[in-house]
Amino acid sequence: MNEECGVFGVFAHDEAAKFTVYGLHALQHRGQEGVGIAAYDANDNKFNLERHMGLVGDVFGDSGPTANLKGRSAIGHVRYSTTGGSLKRNVQPFFADVAGGGIAVAHNGNLTNAKSLREELQARGAIFYATSDTEVIVHLVATSRQRGMVNRLIDALHQVEGAYSLVALTRKRMIGVRDPLGVRPLALGRMGDAWVLASETCAFDIIGAQFVRDVEPGELVEHRLALRPGVQIHRLRAIEKVFDVEGGGSHVDLPGSEAVCLHSRLQPTVSFSWAASSLRSASVLQASSPSAIRSLRWPLPPA
Hints:
Elements: E1 6-11, H1 16-26, E2 34-41, E3 46-53, H2 56-59, E4 73-79, E5 94-98, E6 101-111, H3 114-123, H4 134-143, H5 149-157, E7 162-169, E8 173-178, E9 187-191, E10 194-198, H6 202-207, E11 210-214, E12 219-228, E13 231-233, E14 245-253, E15 260-266, E16 291-297
Antiparallel strand pairs: 1-4, 1-10, 2-3, 2-4, 5-6, 6-7, 7-8, 8-12, 9-10, 9-11, 12-13, 12-16, 14-15
Helix pairs in contact: 3-4, 4-5
């Protein structure tokens, strides 16, 4: 049975790549053409990618290339081609070293305006390597004029149309997003201090992660690291009001977690221009926990 790709991600775990392999194995029914994993190694300050045609067990078996995937954060993808051919160059995640740092993206779904966006980007000088519409998102992030990787991703997603869920990885963040209609699934889980994202909760079962909740339609969930000299701390960034907020913001405690979500519903006519202020001491959480989570939502597009 083909379910049009599966995505998975682990953030803040010493064996992130290994658990990503397990998670992708549980999602194998969603795609059997190819499998890929991107991991970030903070010690060497670099991203490592392994992308191959074939099944998860054949690629990342006992003699597989997981040794190259060092680091405490990783995302992965099992591919069933919906747009683009069954080629190795279309295997995800896609990675780009853009201004502000590198970003890897794994995507499930279809962008209905990918062709027109691709032609527009090519007319502006963009060079495409693959034929998958996921690469369009990477180019839109790279060319965004917004500041900060999360803002640039939001800017990119405001330009695409279609049904999708995606996970993205930067040096200090793992990001999960569902389209405003919530057509493609994405679930949020917890494994100790580590956060997990997956297309289906069966991927949580295989690694012993606890299901927290589904990522809501039109929601962006950001998992991030916050560092201070001598100690890792667990914080939530304060957000300045640079747009009209409908109903204001609210802090929501996640079940079984010390993390906090910030929900803000924006007016449809307001662009996503986020400005991060200084960290607020009131939002300090457990110092022993290395990651924090933030959630942003936007409304459905105008009918």
